[in-house]
TrEMBL record:
This is Synaptic vesicle glycoprotein 2A. It is found in: Cytoplasmic vesicle, Secretory vesicle, Synaptic vesicle membrane; Presynapse. GO terms for biological process: chemical synaptic transmission; neurotransmitter transport. The lineage of its organism: Eukaryota, Metazoa, Chordata, Craniata, Vertebrata. Pfam families: LD_SV2, MFS_1, Sugar_tr. Plays a role in the control of regulated secretion in neural and endocrine cells, enhancing selectively low-frequency neurotransmission. Positively regulates vesicle fusion by maintaining the readily releasable pool of secretory vesicles. It comes from Salmo salar. Interacts with SYT1/synaptotagmin-1 in a calcium-dependent manner. Binds the adapter protein complex AP-2. Gene3D superfamilies: E3 ubiquitin-protein ligase SopA (2.160.20.80), MFS general substrate transporter like domains (1.20.1250.20). Belongs to the major facilitator superfamily. Residues 25-93 are annotated as: Disordered. Residues 66-76 have a biased composition (Polar residues). One of its GO terms (cellular component) is neuron projection.
């Protein structure tokens, strides 16, 4: 009887060993396929090492013996111990199996392995299901992220980042003003025609339009900090080069690329900063951040006022290379961008970006840095960051098989192609049904706001210039049929018109002619030496035995005139600076300074009320008041009156811009935030170009059309803004 039991036990044990070996060998084959799709940390599968309990293999059936045989088999296995899969690390084939440490498995690795081992063969999830899971993850992450920011608090870290990103926003404000300030000098230095002047004025907006779209899309794929560093570097390099290049085309090219670089700053800066702000601080502190754009305008105005009129700050090497004071101003305007780059290198990437892209450890470390920095600054260094695990969003596997023998150039080309496809897909996503209505409404609001604001802010200075010209023209002195003999002119001649005059043996030596016009006049045996002229012309005149030495009176200065036995020696080559607008230049810089400073009250009010009355009320209310203020423009008939109205309009409208920036950040999820913001900001620059072009065409013709255009656009924008969803009190998506 006992021998029978022993034989039966040995038989059962042998059968179990054979079954286990067959199962293990089968699991190895399946596991090789599973390895390729599971556990990104250890690159190995755990499903193939799991073995069923011994009760998965029933003992020999039969009456009362089956229970005994099962227990006896277990005891026999425990006694022998030669095949303990829980203690051994390798088998005869040196294959790793259960018992050897494999790293930390992913939560979904066993599911993936079971699915494959089950024979369904499914390697990719249904896209609708995948997007649903991602959306659920994003919602969970948004709620948890808000809780974590509450624990981190608002303190030293956020204020440090505030000033760093403020420098980047300041650089954007400077860029807007640079070309407008240097244009009066640059157009003379480079001999620009009216068409070229217009292109130079608009080229920065075109560059910023491209830059906003490109860098906004890239920031959602490669990171906020990295994208901002790249775009600021491009701006710094080409702004620096633009201060030295001599030709108009190269200067235009440098300013275009400078605009492309700085164009990404606004979308990235606001998205970057918002992802470090808790819900109750977000609206207020994003509005405070807007003040740096105002500071950039003040900096540019002050530097232009202090540098450009000082013509002594220049040097030249012959007539080919000239470095005048306006180029010094362009060089000084690079400083905010360079300072922003240096400061930004000390700051971390947005943790929300890392978590959105499945990088848990990187995001956790940055949030811990925020927490510890704030707690130490508040005098509580003992407080420990209590968060151990943060929700991350499921990622789509984006594998690119490039092979081992592919060239480096081909590899980078494939990577860029893949990146382009990702950015394009992200851009199209903001027009999906979920965001389509919001996107179209925001496009309309951004367009109307930009069209009216930029159109009027450029129209104001042009109107002031027009009023100044009208006043200057009213003081013009007219001389008719005068006869002048043997007189030496060595003083400035300005704002005069001489008709049918006769000049015999006269000398014009070492003088400046400003807005001088000679018509139907005779110059006989006269001598012109060292003459610098601006807006001065000789029309239908006759020159007999006259010598021109070291003057710029040739070609475009002498029109339809007759030269008899007259000589030009050592002409002043190239284009010369216009010295007629010294006072006007000071006035333009001063007006821009006042107009920029006038937005300070609006910035303060919007920052204090943004989280109290909401984004929509702030946006719509400010737009309505700005619309009403437009009708006061019809009463601005004097220079001082136009300046006052400019300050009023700027101070009121800035609140709507702040609300629009905050609203744009909060309406889109983190994986589409800078893409949407960049696209809307690019549309803003396009509307600015259209507004400037249209409004400028009515300068000196009528005030009614620009006023009606601006008021109508603002009214439409305020109406559409009320149709948008309110985001106050909501967590950041």
């Amino acid at each position: 009887m006992e021998d029978g039991y022993q034989n039966k036990t040995a038989f059962i044990k042998g059968a179990k060993d054979i079954a286990k070996e067959v199962k293990r060998q089968a699991a190895k084959k399946v596991g090789r396929g599973v390895d390729k799709m599971t556990d990104e940390y250890s690159k190995r599968s755990y499903a193939r090492f799991e073995e069923d309990d011994d009760d998965d293999y029933p003992g020999v059936p039969g009456g009362q013996d089956s229970g005994y045989n099962q227990g006896d088999s277990q005891a026999a296995n425990d006694d022998e111990g030669g095949h303990s899969d829980s203690t051994e690390g390798h088998d005869e084939d040196n294959e790793i199996y259960e018992g050897e440490y494999q790293g930390i498995p992913r939560a979904d690795s066993s599911k993936a392995a079971d699915s494959l081992a089950g024979g369904d063969g499914q390697q990719f999830r249904d896209m609708a299901q995948f997007e649903g899971e991602r959306r659920k993850d994003q919602e969970e992450l948004a709620q948890q992220y808000e809780t974590i920011l509450q624990e981190c608090g608002h303190g030293k870290f956020q204020w440090t980042l505030y000033f760093v990103l403020g420098l980047a926003l300041m650089a954007d404000g400077v860029e807007i003003f640079v070309v407008g300030f240097v244009l009066p000098s640059a157009e003379k230095d480079m001999c620009l025609s009216e068409e070229s002047k217009g292109m130079l004025g608009l080229i920065v907006y075109l560059g910023m339009m491209v830059g906003a779209f490109v860098w906004g899309g890239l920031a959602d794929r490669i990171g906020r900090r990295q994208s901002l560093l790249i775009c600021l570097s491009i701006n710094s390099v080409f702004s620096f080069f633009s201060s030295f290049v001599q030709g108009y085309s190269t200067f235009l090219f440098c300013r275009l690329l400078s605009g492309v670089g700085i164009g990404g700053s606004i979308p990235i800066v606001f998205s970057y900063y918002s992802e470090f702000l808790a819900q109750e601080k977000r609206g207020e502190h994003l509005s405070w951040l807007c003040m740096f754009w105002m500071i950039g305008g003040i900096y540019a105005s002050a530097m232009a006022w202090a540098i450009i009129p000082h013509y002594g700050w220049s040097f030249q090497m012959g007539s080919a290379y000239q470095f005048h004071s306006w180029r010094v101003f362009v060089l000084v305007c690079v400083f905010p961008s360079v300072a922003a780059i240096a400061s930004l290198t000390t700051m971390p990437e947005s943790p929300r970006f890392f978590l959105q892209n499945g990088k848990h450890d990187e995001g956790w470390m940055i949030l811990k840095q925020v927490h510890d920095t704030n707690m130490r600054a508040k005098g509580h260094p003992e407080k420990v960051f209590s968060v151990t695990t943060i929700k991350t969003v499921k990622q789509m596997d984006e594998l690119l098989d490039m092979g081992g023998d592919i060239s480096t150039l081909r590899r980078y080309k494939l990577k860029l192609t893949s990146l382009f496809q990702q950015v394009r897909s992200n851009f199209l996503a903001i027009f999906n049904p979920e965001y389509r209505r919001t996107t179209f409404m925001m496009m309309a609001v951004w367009f109307t706001m930009s069209f009216s604001y930029y159109g009027l802010t450029v129209w104001f200075p042009d109107m002031i210039k027009y009023i100044q010209k009208q006043e200057y023209a009213s003081r013009t002195k007219f001389f008719t049929k005068e006869r002048v003999e043997h007189v030496t002119f060595n003083f400035t001649l300005e704002n005069q018109v001489h008709r049918q005059g006769q000049y015999f043996n006269d000398k014009f030596i070492n003088l400046k002619m400003k807005s001088m016009v000679f018509e139907d006049s005779l110059f006989e045996e006269c001598y012109f030496e060292d003459i610098t002229s601006s807006r001065s012309f000789f029309r239908n005149c006759t020159f007999i035995s006259t010598l021109f030495y070291n003057t710029d009176l040739f070609q475009n200065r002498i029109i339809n005139s007759k030269l008899v036995n007259s000589t030009f020696l050592h002409n002043k080559e190239g284009c010369l600076l216009d010295f007629t607008d010294d006072n006007n230049a000071y006035m333009i810089y001063f007006v821009s300074f006042l107009g920029t400073l006038a937005v300070l009250p609006g910035n303060i009010v919007s920052a204090l009320l943004m989280d109290k009355i909401g984004r929509l009320r702030m946006l719509a209310g400010s737009s309505v008041i700005s619309c009403v203020s437009c009708f006061f423009l019809s009463f601005g008939s004097t220079e001082s009156g136009m300046i006052a109205l400019l300050c009023l309009f700027g101070g009121i409208s800035i609140a709507s811009w702040n609300a629009l920036d905050v609203l744009t950040v909060e309406l889109y999820p983190s994986d589409k935030r800078t893409t949407a913001f960049g696209f809307l900001n690019a549309l803003c620059k396009l509307a600015a170009v259209l507004g400037i072009s249209i409004f400028q065409s009515f300068v000196g013709i009528t005030k009614a059309v620009p006023i009606l255009f601006a008021a109508g656009a603002l009214a439409a924008g305020s109406f559409l803004a009320l149709k948008l969803p309110e985001t106050r009190g909501q967590v950041l998506q």
